[in-house]
Amino acid sequence: MTLDSEASPGVFQFRESEIRVSESASPVVIVIENIGNTTQSAILRVSTAGGTATTNQDYVGLSNQQVTFTSGDGVKEVSTPIIDDDEVEGNESFVVHLELQDPSNPSATLGPKSNVTIIIVDNDQPPGPGVFQFRVSEIGVSESASPVVIVIENIGNTAQSAILRVSTAGGTATTNQDFVGLSNQQVTFTSGDGVKEVSTPIIDDDEVEGNESFVVHLELQDPSNPSATLGPKSNVTIIIVDNDHPPGPGVFQFRVSEIGVSESASPVVIVIENIGNTAQSAILRVSTAGGTATTDQDYVGLSNQQVTFTSGDGVKEVSTPIIDDDEVEGNESFVVHLELQDPSNPSATLGPKSNVTIIIVDNDQPPGPGVFQFRVSEVRVSESASPVVIVIENIGNTAQSATLRVSTADGTATAGQDYIGISNQQVNFTSGDGVKEVSTPIIDDDEVEGNETFVVHLELQDPSNPSATLGPKSNVTIIIVDNDQSPGKCEILHLLFFYRFIYRIIT
């Protein structure tokens, strides 16, 4: 049997969905790749748009720049200069968009990464500390994709220096069986550094054990250093996606069912994962629909965008730009829908999270304070599901800024035995921020102790600040669901029947 290579199209996309570049590191280079049939040719167009950065003030824009792929080409590059000014303006972003010159060309299609967000890291800093944290609070990695790379960033004053320590702990994965642990690994940020990376190997075994996790923890070597502090993402959970599966289908779904995103934070990145048999392949389609937000006015819609999972793939991403307008319209939402290209495929099925609601947090606010609170007043978490992630949101005027403090207090759970406590952890909301996260590890012990609770408390660092107030949900109760069970009801009934049987024999 021969394969007709011309039957399959070239699939063109950016290599990454986000690039961070210092304001002084010009130009930014953007890689386009053909992840499909490289014998196909296509002409692409590249343009810049949107975001908080301004064309010709912060960067030099692109308008329909032509990029030609001929047969055999796998990679091309485009670049655009970054303008280094002297203004203290914070990090800014713009979006680079990829499109086909001829969308009707059957030999070419776009991949899921047709937009890339360029984040310009401001190098003009006011006096203040460096704020160090992990870039994300969760990373999914296949058991066979070693090592896992973890990004640490300084989101504060990059003129400051600091020495950090990175360690691994907790979770359902076991050190030296599932991953190689870290113990106080030193990471040094010097003046001007915005990003550093650490990595740890994942151990690929042959056991069918399901997905497992561990936590990577960040701390300051010198907590008394006034020029450095930790940001809210001081813990990142690594989810090891098991690649040893019994016969069964791949189960494809979105990672979460709801994402809150500021109107100015474009694009929104949506994670799709295979929580079933990762040896299976499938082609998925992603579309947007419904809600109170309007396509091409509030966001750029998706229509049957193809996402391909091949054997071993555990996670994919799609993104769609958010349009930042000047209207005071309140928060709006739209739905992203996932479906199988071939529903009759026996090796693939959809999981329960086949829809994700995107909430666009309006950043055009009438005069008024920011109103800060937890998203929910109660979170239930299994003792083995570490860490617990807690969402804080501004349900008021998102143009306002505030510094919050988060602390924990024991209920029936005890800090250091059942969970890792938090003491006055700083969370910064800047203008435009709608949502932040904090997390704290849960300690999985072997004691049968029943469900236990502790409380997470939110307060303003400066209660006299007229531009910030607390909402009604300033406390959230964390319920740790015990996974160490005493003999169940069924065992007790068996004992009762046994004693009744013995009694009848005796009498």
UniProtKB/TrEMBL annotation:
GO CC annotations, alphabetized: axon; postsynapse; sarcolemma
Gene Ontology molecular function:
calcium:sodium antiporter activity
In the record, biological process GO terms are: calcium ion import across plasma membrane; cell communication
Transmembrane parts of this sequence: none
Q: Cite the Calx-beta domain residue spans from the record.
A: 1-99, 116-219, 236-339, 356-459
- Protein name per UniProt: Calx-beta domain-containing protein
What Gene3D superfamilies does its record include?
A: 2.60.40.2030
Q: Provide this UniProt record's keywords sorted from A to Z.
A: Calcium, Ion transport, Repeat, Signal, Transport
